[in-house]
Description:
By secondary structure, the chain is of the alpha/beta class. It contains 14 helices and 17 strands.
Amino acid sequence: xxxxxxxxxxxxxxxxxxxxxxxxxxxxxxxxxxxxxxxxxxxxxxxxxxxxxxxxxxxxxxxxxxxxxxxxxxxxxxxxxxxxxxxxxxxxxxxxxxxxxxxxxxxxxxxxxxxxxxxxxxxxxxxxxxxxxxxxxxxxxxxxxxxxxxxxxxxxxxxxxxxxxxxxxxxxxxxxxxxxxxxxxxxxxxxxxxxxxxxxxxxxxxxxxxxxxxxxxxxxxxxxxxxxxxxxxxxxxxxxxxxxxxxxxxxxxxxxxxxxxxxxxxxxxxxxxxxxxxxxxxxxxxxxxxxxxxxxxxxxxxxxxxxxxxxxxxxxxxxxxxxxxxxxxxxxxxxxxxxxxxxxxxxxxxxxxxxxxxxxxxxxxxxxxxxxxxxxxxxxxxxxxxxxxxxxxxxxxxxxxxxxxxxxxx
Length: 410
């Protein structure tokens, strides 16, 4: 196979001029002339005075090593992995080090001297400054580690080049001895698609925005208006869903007042108005889990979230440990008063008239209890709210295993 990327480098020259001269008449098998192909890449030049460093910001590179003295492709493969591993970026998703995949081939010059072509895919992408030495593979010579060759050419994948992995790997497969595992040609483009899939699957607009800003910063700036439009309508077509408990409940131990309130609001009698249940009690007693144990509730955890209230198919609203004295809860009276219609606003959303008319369960621990607020308590009672204060060690549930043990002893 013609050596399109790197020719013999004389011991006395830098390797750069020789490469350009040898490429002048070659035709690249990647669909463009060889000189153009090389000029679009970056040349890692030997350690000579005035040699410029290499900066890379990419997820894939095609590297050619000329005049190597490593005969065994597997030895070269191991040396390359060793050289790059210590420089891999941190993977934010896992918290560990990033990964790389290597696929390459060994070819021989006319004089029998080996050279290597290597395709490398990084996950996550690398952002390296002055990184030419990162690609230097070492070999053992007289019980000492020495750089195998400094005649190294690095061509990074451009962001718009979706065929890079396919073309470069096809080139490696056309001749020589292949090593490593072939890289999925959808790598990179699939990762970019995953960003948007993760954003769409996010549970809140805030989470979706965080994903886009972190994983697609360029798109976040260039297409800011479109992304904001997406965030504004984030929950528009996302229906409410039944809650899945994190533990197996064997039996609920709701109080008589709680059961009476539920019977009065589910189903609501014709012409009736839903009411609020204020449930104050110790932590981990099952207040919120009981409140979420039927229907398809909307859940507001701590802060205000109008988008959550606008999901279609909501059966009731659960407010859990909300900081009701903060400014963001300026609409608290409309919510706990179970008003049929309210004019509300929220993050990413302009003020709008929203149809509510749903029963509300407000659960809280003692530290966030509104029981001492005379004005608010007066309003709740005027709206027909039911108020329940649980005892210190009172539990609203029994685990499935406890119920089975009780049945076995009877």
